[in-house]
Write a structure and sequence with these properties.
The protein folds into two domains: 192 residues, Rossmann fold; 35 residues, no CATH class. Helices cover 49% and strands 14% of the residues. It contains ten helices and eight strands. The strands form two sheets. Strands 2-3-1-4-8 form a five-stranded parallel sheet, with helices on both faces. Strands 6-5-7 form a three-stranded antiparallel sheet, with no helix packed on it. Strand 5 and strand 6 form a beta hairpin. Helix 5 runs parallel beside helix 8 and helix 6 crosses helix 7. It starts with a strand and ends with a helix.
Length: 244
């Protein structure tokens, strides 16, 4: 498989971060988690006196998207370093606006080639988003996200991966989630129209499925596209062995 860039879209709670981590492990990609990256920037204790950071933190903590020019600049810088290092990349939710897509997609095409860029949309009803996110717990040490739907019905105190303590993000309360859903619909989804005009197919995936089933669908679409382009000999890979 050629060096590629994968873009995962979806509303809050649709599993973008989980799938990006799984894909990074399966396909040897770097997961550029713009949400966590920007969260770290706006919550950096050493930068809290900066007025610009104060403004961006207020946007972030209330569920609104950050200033597009700031996000684009940071994303473009990061992905350029990744590509120059000879690695592919998977984005969980970026580019988030039409502005960012107009700026970032030409850079990705130059770095990876248009045929090696794959775009997915995870479909999830709003009520599922609210339920998933309002109960979501994240390990403060390793970042592991506890999937409550598949975990014993007890309130876990410690991460099963590293033993760290769980916490809830400032974004993960029902009121803020509804703002994030509105932001996704009004500011991110319009970017789909632009991407289609640019010639990209957006693969729709049912995100209500268990994460391993979603992964199966995503990788199946990537491999099918690669085979059609002649990048992978159909008999050269045992797909199910590769995936599981």
């Amino acid at each position: 498989m050629k060096k590629s860039a994968i873009i995962l879209y979806g509303p809050p709670g649709s599993g973008k971060g989980t799938q990006a981590n799984l894909l990074a492990g399966k396909l040897n990609l770097i997961h550029f988690d713009s949400g966590k990256f920007l969260e770290a920037v706006v919550h950096d204790p050493l930068r809290q006196k900066e007025k610009f950071i104060q403004k961006e933190r207020e946007l972030f903590d209330t569920g609104k998207l950050l200033t597009p020019s700031f996000v684009f600049k940071e994303a473009a810088r990061a992905v350029t370093k990744i590509a120059k290092g000879g690695l592919g990349v998977v984005f969980s939710g970026a580019p988030r606006t039409v502005y960012e897509a107009k700026g970032l997609m030409p850079i990705l095409e130059r770095l990876y080639g248009k045929k090696n860029i794959f775009v997915f949309e995870f479909k999830l009803p709003p009520n599922h988003s609210v339920k998933r996110n309002s109960t979501r717990m994240i390990c403060r040490s390793c970042g592991y996200m506890l999937l409550n739907a598949y975990y014993p019905k007890v309130r876990a105190k410690h991460c099963p991966v590293c033993g760290g303590n769980f916490y809830k993000r400032t974004l993960d309360n029902p009121k803020v989630i509804k703002v994030r859903l509105k932001e996704y619909k009004e500011r991110t989804m319009p970017a789909f129209t632009l991407l289609r005009k640019m010639g990209y197919k957006i693969h729709a995936i049912d995100a209500k499925m268990a994460p391993y089933k979603v992964l199966h669908k995503v990788v199946s679409n990537i491999f099918l596209s690669e085979k059609k382009k002649g990048f992978i000999a159909p008999d050269s890979i045992n797909f199910y062995q590769f995936l599981f």
